[in-house]
Design goal:
Number of helices: 17
Structural class: alpha+beta
Strand order of the largest sheet: 1-7-6-2-5-4-3
Radius of gyration: 27 Å
Number of strands: 17
Strand content: 15-25%
Largest sheet: 7 strands, mixed
Helix content: 40-55%
Length: about 475
């Protein structure tokens, strides 16, 4: 048994806040053993947990002191069992109550767990009133580190939420991305916010870019509260209308939306990039694209791609090296932009911003790995950007093709690595679209040397994708 985390000087609100945060994470088969003397807050914790899981379905949560067990269901269909074993006379009675089976298929909260005998790998949550401070308690979490180590972040999250005035909010997990960051939505009556859990010491670039963007009138989410040491942010909730979802639901809006995306880049590129962002120049582009040669050709079973990096570095010097760098948000695409009707587009996932050629973000938005973009829209937006900025169209289109090829080759390497190293295979379904974009890019006459360097490398056919899946 390992001590996972401690939350000191927790009042009733902070204790309930911890329960609501935990409710966003636990899954069927998880057992929480609630330990502590009478009046320590075990039922208070369980009540907050259950009501958070139920959300709008929330019902009264009485103490199970006399019934021994109360069962509930959340909107996802998960059963939640709340047991009080104080009156249990023998551990064998657990089977009569159905707790043995419930601990396999439900989320189970057990008060006075020591009356029921050994439990299957539980999280031990201890509540101990502080001497001389009856309204405060020390909360500890203990269990096997292999199973429960992820709970170590919960006290810091609860403290930030509580300090920011959101302790009564329900916490709901949001879909993540390919990174290690986690996101949660806080819902408190008619207001909401988003909690970002990025990990200790990782928030500097995000905070700096947020401040830079907002100072120039661009709609990065407002920071509501922060614990930078722990890597936690509470930020403005821009809502669920990601550009990707809006285009899928209303395809007729696509031309207007892509116009707005291009106009946003024109506005962004009118500012000098901040000094704190790193350059994404020819040598760095070459270094990054080496990921393609390292992973995709060996996994696909053909070619080498060994010359790709050096060719891209040389072509960048010829086609793009003389153009002043602008700020590139780097992951500028429909999944990271929020449609806010007539208001400026909301920006997400910009902490990796760089100083780069102006075509970089445009190609990121128009050659989207996750969805098809009408070729007519792509050509219209290139023309729109050229007209708005006055750049040399021929050189811009050549650089656009080069940066598109570099981005997409790197993405092929990333998707292969995610599948083989991390077991994240869902990205392989995007490979044919990415490969088609590469073929269009290298068809540009200026990219003939890159086309030659890719010769012999197989396309991601179903057979090749199956080969990558097998590892």
């Amino acid at each position: 048994m390992t001590l996972i985390a401690t939350l000191d000087h927790a009042d009733a609100d902070l204790t309930a806040c911890l329960a609501r945060v935990m409710a966003a994470i636990l899954k069927p088969g998880d057992v929480v053993a609630l330990e502590g003397p009478v009046g320590a807050g075990k039922t208070h914790f369980a009540r907050a947990f259950i009501r958070a899981r139920q959300g709008e379905m929330a019902e009264d949560v009485p103490s199970p002191t006399f019934t021994l067990v109360q069962t509930y269901e959340d909107p996802m269909g998960t059963e939640i069992w709340h047991a009080d074993l104080y009156r249990l006379t023998h551990p064998d009675e657990l089977a009569e109550l159905g707790l043995d089976e419930a601990m396999r298929d439900a989320v189970v909260l057990i008060e006075w767990p020591d009356h029921g005998g050994p439990l299957p790998d539980p999280l031990i949550l201890g509540l101990e009133p502080l001497v001389g401070f009856p309204d405060l308690r020390r909360v500890t979490m203990a269990g096997s580190a292999a199973r429960w180590g992820g709970m170590a972040r919960l006290p810091a999250i609860a403290r930030l939420v509580h300090r920011a005035g959101w302790s009564g909010a329900r916490v709901v997990p949001l879909a993540g991305d390919a990174s290690a960051r986690r996101y949660f939505r806080l819902i408190d009556e008619d207001r909401s916010a988003v909690l970002m859990d990025a990990g200790p010491g990782s928030l500097g670039p995000y905070v700096a870019m947020t401040q830079w963007l907002r100072a120039r009138g661009l709609h990065a989410p407002e920071i509501l509260a922060a614990d930078q040491a722990e890597g936690l942010l509470l930020i403005e909730d821009l809502g669920d209308d990601l550009v990707a979802r809006v285009i899928q639901a209303k395809p007729d809006l696509a031309p207007r939306i892509y116009d707005r995306m291009t106009d946003l880049l024109v506005e962004l590129h009118g500012h000098q990039p901040p000094e704190f962002v790193l350059p994404l120049d020819g040598p760095e582009l070459a270094r990054q694209v080496a990921l393609f040669a390292d992973y995709y050709p060996p996994a696909a079973g053909g070619g080498s791609g060994a010359d790709v990096a050096s060719v891209i570095e040389r072509l960048h010097a010829e086609l793009a090296g003389d153009v002043p760098a602008v700020l590139g948000l780097r992951d500028f695409h429909a999944e990271n932009l929020v449609w806010l009707d007539d208001a400026p587009l909301g920006l997400l996932d910009f902490q990796d911003a760089v100083a780069v050629h102006p075509a970089y973000d445009l190609v990121s938005g128009l050659q989207d790995a996750r969805r098809d973009v009408d070729p007519a829209i792509e050509q219209a937006q290139i023309a729109r950007y050229v007209a708005a900025t006055g750049v040399d169209e021929g050189r811009f289109r050549a650089a656009y093709a080069l940066l598109g090829a570099q981005r997409n080759l790197r993405i092929m390497g990333i998707f292969t690595r995610l599948a083989q190293r991390d077991g994240k295979r869902r990205y392989l379904a995007f490979m044919p679209r990415v490969w088609d974009a590469i073929q269009r890019d290298i068809a540009h006459p200026a990219l003939a040397p890159l086309a030659a360097a890719l010769k012999g490398i197989p396309a991601p056919t179903p057979a090749v994708i199956e080969r990558i899946t097998r590892g």
